[in-house]
Automatic annotation (TrEMBL):
This is GNAT family N-acetyltransferase. PROSITE patterns: GNAT. Keywords: Acyltransferase, Transferase. Residues 1-141 form the N-acetyltransferase domain. SUPFAM superfamilies: Acyl-CoA N-acyltransferases (Nat) (SSF55729).
Length: 141
C-alpha cells in the first residue's frame, strides 16, 4: 500500500506527538539530552499580587532562550526590562550556558536588545507583512 499524506487543519495532541516523538528521538541520538528547564521572572502588582508582566525562558542545549518579555506600558522607561534581562543573564551563567538568544519584531524592541549587547544573527522580512522579525544572540563564553 502506498504511503498516504493527509492534510489536517484540526490537529489533535496525539497527532502532534506522532510527529514530535520521532524528531525528539533523532535529536537525542544526534545532539544528546537537552534536559530543558523553564523559568520565569514575574512582575507582580503589589496590591493584588497579580502577574502583570515579566520574562519567561528556557534553557536547552546550554543556551537560554528568552521566549517572552513583557513590561506594562505604564512601567516602561524605568529600567525594569533591563533588570529582567540582567537577571536572565545571571540565570544563564548559573546554568553554565554558552549564550542567550531571542526573537523580536521590528515594532517591538530591537534597539533595546542591541543596547544590552545582543547581536543580530538572522531576520525574516515581511513577518508580519511590512515588518521584520529579528533573531539576536549574546554569547557568554
Amino acid at each position: 500500500m502506498p504511503l498516504e499524506i493527509q492534510l489536517s487543519e484540526i490537529v489533535t495532541e496525539a497527532e502532534r506527538f506522532g510527529i514530535l516523538n520521532p524528531l525528539l528521538a533523532h535529536n537525542l541520538a544526534k545532539g544528546g539530552d537537552d534536559a530543558h528547564e523553564t523559568f520565569a521572572l514575574l512582575l507582580r502588582d503589589p496590591d493584588s499580587n497579580e502577574v502583570i508582566g515579566g520574562l519567561y525562558g528556557k534553557v536547552s542545549y546550554r543556551w537560554l532562550l528568552i521566549d517572552l518579555v513583557s513590561v506594562p506600558e505604564s512601567m516602561r522607561g524605568q529600567g525594569i526590562g533591563e533588570r529582567l534581562m540582567h537577571m536572565a543573564e545571571e540565570v544563564a551563567k548559573q546554568k553554565h550556558c554558552i549564550g542567550i538568544w531571542l526573537e523580536t519584531f521590528s515594532f517591538q524592541a530591537p534597539g533595546f536588545y542591541q543596547k544590552l549587547g545582543y547581536s543580530e544573527f538572522g531576520r525574516l522580512a515581511d513577518y508580519p507583512p511590512g515588518h521584520t522579525r529579528f533573531y539576536y544572540q549574546k554569547r557568554l563564553c
